[in-house]
Amino acid sequence: MRKISRQLQLALIIFVISFLFHLIGLGKIGRTWDEQFKYDLGFVGWDNIFHGRFAEEYWAFGTEHPMLAKYIYGMAAPLNQIFVPPSGVLPDTFRTTFENNIWTPTILNGSRYLVRYDFLAPRLISAVANSLTIAFTYLLAASFLSSTFSLAIPFILLFTPRFLVMGQLMTYESLSVALFTAALYLGLRRHLNWATLLIAASFWIRYNNVYLLIFWAGYLWFVHRDWRRILYLPVLTLAIGLLTWPYLWHHFPSNLISSFQEHSSRQIGFSFYFIRSLFVTTPIPILLLAGLGFFSVPKYIRWWFISSLVFFTIFSVTGGGTRYIFVIYPALALMAAAGWKYVWGLLRYPLIQIFGAAAILGWLAFSLFSYYPYYLDYYNELVGGISGAAQSGYDVSWWGEGQREAALWLKTNAPPDSSLALYVTPKYVFPVYFGRQFKIFPFDSGIQEADYLVVSRDQYPLLAAEISESYHPVYDVRVRGVSLLSIFARK
Predict the structure, then answer these.
(1) Average pLDDT, rounded, for the chain
(2) Phi and psi at residue 431, in whole multiples of 5°?
(3) 96: number of Cβ within 10 Å
(4) What angle (nearest 5°) sits at the alpha carbon of residue 9, between those of residues 6 and 10?
(5) Which residues contact 56 (CB under 8 A, 6 or more apart)?
(6) What Rg do the C-alpha atoms of the chain give, in angstroms?
(7) pLDDT tens digits for range 102-153
(8) Can you tell me the distance from the alpha carbon of 68 to that of 321, in angstroms, rounded to the nearest whole number?
(9) C-beta of residue 404 within 8 angstroms of C-beta of residue 431
(10) CA dihedral 246, 251, 255, 258 (to 10 degrees)
(11) What span, in angstroms and rounded, lies between the C-alpha atoms of 73 and 37?
(12) Could you tell me if 162 and 375 are in contact, meaning their C-beta atoms sit under 8 angstroms apart?
């Protein structure tokens, strides 16, 4: 009992440290794909519930994904926005808050709001979820490794850039993996009812979490020989969906089926995209340690790692880096921790062991912070870092990285009566209101007329001739020498 208590205490400490680590640079990356979608629909969902609006027309929006994650992030909405009265005049108490932040105006259920551009409040929820994942992964490691080697888990996960950044954004991934690792720990403690409930709920975070249901069914059978819970897992899953999503109350099951079909525009099929993405966006020391530790971890962890690779290779959507296969990171960390134990034994002498640990930690720290805060653009040495990845055609600045930084530069340096033309990707994450009454042309228009151009790296080749003729560069958002986004001023 004392041993379990000590492990839980360490897990709590790891959670707190991990959460604080996620706060470093939280919000500096700017908005990315789909964050506003989750936020807006979460707020609208709660607003509908509080006002008793359950008719189908109030819920027939954003049905590509279920509502559970949107509810979770929507809880933070009141802390992240200012109501704009019909007069359009903000109360004096909001003036300082308004002037010291950048905002996006929006209309939610017929009311006008100014929403904080950085989404700090809802992103804190994602940071909590990622930190819970780290704590539960540590507890899983402690079930087969000593406390010393289990403590490698937070270092491995926190210094994996693509894992860390998903806890600094509003993502389905951070919530999904927190539920999954919690369920595995509860399964280890034989609290199978609670664990099965978490797995069932995960399906309503994101539909590709069907993998988690399949894995859990296999886990229940091969580890616990529990066929009863396997039988009621789909029933419990459906019940949670019906309880949490009023859209399903109407025309069931056709509305459920139609929500599945929202993905039909995306090509889902066999591809090695996720395997390639994992191997070029994970720091090399972690890959090597995971390979060394593969046969030293319990069978369910190997099954977790292999089955997720196989599932998301057969049912692949090429895009988004590793976010769809995000569930693999805790398994990778557990294998790497076991690999570190093996390496520690090979080094034998304490001084060499300490030097080896410091060298690996230094490599990981440099790999992380040299990309700060744009961890979404991290690529390892297998492809020559971000510069090699850009030359090889990998996604660089695909998520909207640099648009926030560009807006803040313009806020500080451009005259108030300037006009802006935006040639950026994505089209909707630039802060259109940030304390200056700039004239902003509609996206992809205004070149030759605007005083300033904001151009993403993927758009620049299409505009290079026009830009060089009439504009000159004044600011670049760069990561390790590679331009993510540029600002040009009229000559």
Answers:
(1) 93
(2) -75, 105
(3) 9
(4) 90
(5) 247, 250, 251, 255
(6) 24
(7) 888 889 988 999 899 999 999 999 999 999 999 999 999 999 999 889 999 9
(8) 24
(9) yes
(10) -170
(11) 11
(12) yes
Within 13 Å, how many C-alpha atoms sit on residue 326's CB side?
26
Residues 292-350: tens digit of each pLDDT: 999 999 999 999 999 999 999 999 888 889 999 999 999 999 999 999 999 999 998 89
- Closest C-alpha to 273, from 317, 327, 330, 211: 317
Provide the token pair at 250. Answer: 């109407």
CB 236 within 8 A of CB 204: no
Burial class (CB in 10 A: 0-12, 13-18, 19+), 14: buried
Q: Tell me the mean pLDDT in the region 177-182.
A: 98
Average pLDDT over residues 198-208: 97
Count CB atoms within 10 A of the CB of residue 187. 23
Strands 111-116 and 81-84: antiparallel
pLDDT digits (tens, 9 = 90+) for 395-437: 999 999 999 999 999 988 999 889 999 999 999 899 877 656 6
pLDDT digits (tens, 9 = 90+) for 226-284: 999 999 999 999 999 999 999 999 999 999 999 987 665 667 889 999 999 999 999 99
Tell me the two tokens of residue 18.
């991990």
Six-digit token pair at 456?
Answer: 């993403």
State how far the Cα of 405 lies from the Cα of 412, in Å rounded to an integer.
11
Question: To which residue do tokens 């009863």 refer?
Answer: 228
The 3-state secondary structure of the chain, one letter per residue:
CHHHHHHHHHHHHHHHHHHHHHCCCCCCCCCCCCHHHHHHHHHHHHHHHHCCCCCHHHCCCCCCCCCHHHHHHHCCHHHCEEEECCCCCCCHHHHHHHHCCCEEEEEECCEEEEEECCCHHHHHHHHHHHHHHHHHHHHHHHCCCCHHHHCHHHHHHHCCHHHHHHCCCCCHHHHHHHHHHHHHHHHHCCCHHHHHHHHHHHCCCCHHHHHHHHHHHHHHHHHHCCHHHHHHHHHHHHHHHHHHCHHHHCCCCHHHHHHHHHHHHCCCECCCHHHHHHHHHCCHHHHHHHHHHHHHCCHHHHHHHHHHHHHHHHCECCCCCCHHHCCHHHHHHHHHHHHHHHHHHHHCCHHHHHHHHHHHHHHHHHHHHCCCCCHHHCCCHHHCHHHHHHHHCCCCCCCCCCHHHHHHHHHHHCCCCCEEEEECCCCCCCCCECCCCCEECCCCCCCCCCCEEEEECCCHHHHHHHHHHHEEEEEEEEECCEEEEEEEEEC
Q: How far apart are CA 389 and CA 108, in angstroms?
A: 40
Cα–Cα distance measured from residue 236 to residue 192, given in angstroms and rounded to the nearest whole number? 13
Q: C-alpha distances in angstroms, 303 versus 138, 313, 362, 476? A: 18, 15, 31, 45
Tokens of 32: 């990315």
Q: Which two tokens stand for residue 321?
A: 């880096």
CA 131/CA 269 separation, integer angstroms: 32
